Amino acid sequence: MSANETTLATAGFGETGPAADVVAQRPKIFEMTAVAEEAVLRPKEEGRWPHPLRAAMAARIAALNGFGDLAVRYASEAGDFAGLANPARDGVADGLGPVLAFMDRVAVETRNVVATDISALQDAGVADADIVRLSELNAFLAYQIRVVAGLRLMSEGKP
Amino acid sequence: MSPVVRKFTRSVPEWRPRVVPVKLEAASEAQLDALSVTPSGTKVSDYVLTLAHDVESLKVRSPLFNAIMYDKGGMSRAEREIGAIGASMVNRCIYCAAVHAARHAQLEDSTEITDRLFLDGHAAALPDRERAIFEFAAALSEAPPEAGQEQMQALREAGLEEAEILDLILSTALFGWANRLMHVLGDPVRPDGAEA
Question: What's the ipTM?
Answer without folding.
Answer: 0.95
